[in-house]
Specification:
Blueprint (H helix, E strand, L loop, with lengths): L1 E3 L14 H10 L8 H8 L2 H11 L3 E4 L2 E4 L5 H10 L4 H8 L2 E2 H4 L5 H4 L2 H22 L5 E6 L7 E6 H4 L1
Antiparallel strand pairs: 1-5, 2-3, 4-6, 5-6
Helix pairs in contact: 4-5
Amino acid sequence: MVEIVDPQGNPELDLSLLPIFQRYKQENESWIPDFNLWSYLNLRGDHDLAAAFSKLFWPDFTEVDGCVFLAQQYDAETFKGWKERLGGNKSAIEGMINHVHISDLFLNSPKEVKDSKGLDEYIAKILMVCWKHALQEQFPGKQFVFSLDGDYGYTDSISFYQAEHGE
């Protein structure tokens, strides 16, 4: 696990990690000579999907008992269970409830995309930067520590907790 107190920057996206983008580029470059990511989004995406993704990259949060959680991940019974199991350690509770596996977000990805470990790492890093800014805006007096973790030799999950709980 890599813990990062202040995630910064704009992670670079290696377009070679996007096999479907590459296919679309090849198929459409005759009529879109400067095919780029926005061209790709124009052909594959829609308003509905873009709005849904906005809540992944700029999520809602909830604060319970001094802990900050991704609203999507929070459940009162789960919180109670982790609070008991972890002896009330707020950092550990936040870290567990806010833990997100990247592959769980995209269950319908084609195999050629699911097998791209570099994409999981990129998405985890970009989520970390986006969530940092969203948290700073909603909780300006708090500092958060992010963790990037992976069980298979590459980053495949992200989590965060408040620094003052554990530092």
